[in-house]
Write a structure and sequence with these properties.
The structure holds two protein chains of two kinds. Chain A is of the alpha/beta class. Chain A contains four helices and six strands; from the N terminus they run ββαββαβαβα. In chain A, strands 1, 2, 3, 4, 5 and 6 form a six-stranded mixed sheet that branches. Chain B is α+β, with helices and mostly antiparallel strands. Chain B has one domain: Heat Shock Protein 90. Chain B has a six-stranded antiparallel sheet with strand order 1-2-3-4-6-5, covered by helices on one side. In chain B, α1 runs antiparallel to α2 and α2 runs antiparallel to α3. Chain B is globular, with a radius of gyration of 16 Å. Classes of the chains: A alpha/beta, B alpha+beta. The interface between A and B is medium-sized, with 24 and 27 residues.
């Protein structure tokens, strides 16, 4: 897994490449939470190059969504591949998370 | 770590033994790669197999053992006539996957937990599921049809 992190107009964008599994999700969680600790409350997860996700990756996203809601922040996901989108749908996550088709739309709505 | 035997055209058997530590997840990823070289299936199906194996393994690592000792988890994959059979054996606490309740995926966000989600994924992506408890071992036997049905548009993914 690779994470490229950039800040565009106060929005923290995480571009995640590869796999979010039971091992790599720990690093993903740590990167997200160090960003939240720095006071950043608006996050976009660009999943265009995310090939694989398991319940461990979903758990991090659920936890982040809950915590940002409490902090009056926001998180939007974008550019999901078909497999990743199906896993979110099976998890019932489509009802909880904001998912946009592409990065431009995510940045407009965050 | 893995033994792969190509018995005849279309028949493949692969066995791995893992320890109850998440670092051994890499052995599952390697096994799925080996499987991809031995059978004819789409990358999409391989991701589903990867997910099934990871969730079964992570579940037993996280919840299967009350002691701090090392345990073996045996996984075998056999494919014959387009049907993949996944068999997992462990000597952990009894866990009947067939009796595991589905998570409430439509409750309010605040109440939504992550418990049971991995097993929910497993059940979604397999076609048959059996559980046995024999000689203090959990034995799970799953079957998955490898023929592409509804995901043809995702073949390249």
């Amino acid at each position: 897994m690779e994470i490229i992190q950039e800040n565009v107009n106060g929005v923290e964008i995480f571009s995640v490449k590869g796999s979010l599994d039971s091992n790599t999700s720990l690093e993903f969680e740590s990167r997200i939470y160090s960003t939240l600790e720095n006071g950043q409350k608006r996050l976009v997860l660009n999943l265009e190059n995310l090939e694989y996700i398991s319940s461990a990756g979903i758990r991090v996203m659920l936890k982040t969504t809950k915590d940002l809601k409490r902090m009056d922040g926001n998180i939007i996901l974008c550019s999901l591949q078909d497999y990743v989108k199906e896993v979110f749908d099976i998890a019932g996550f489509d009802g909880y998370l904001s998912i946009e088709k592409n990065l431009d739309e995510a940045l407009q709505k965050i | 770590m893995g033994v792969i035997r190509v018995k005849a055209m279309g028949k493949v058997k692969l066995s791995i033994t893992l320890k109850n530590r998440l670092a051994d997840l890499d052995k599952i990823k390697t096994a799925v790669l080996k499987l991809s070289g031995a059978i004819d299936c789409t990358r999409r199906k391989l991701k589903e197999i990867d997910l099934i194996l990871e969730e079964l393994f992570a579940n037993v690592v996280h919840h299967g053992f009350k002691d701090n000792r090392e345990h073996d988890i045996d996984i075998s994959l056999s494919c014959d006539d387009g049907i993949l059979e996944i068999r997992m054996e462990d000597d952990g606490e009894p866990f009947d996957i067939t009796a595991s309740p589905a998570p409430d995926t439509r409750c309010a966000l605040d109440k939504r937990g992550i418990g049971g989600l991995g097993i929910h994924f497993v059940k979604h992506f397999i076609d048959d599921c059996k559980y046995y408890r024999k000689k203090n071992k959990n034995i799970i036997v799953l079957k998955k049809n490898m023929a592409e049905k509804t995901h043809k548009k995702n073949d390249s993914k």
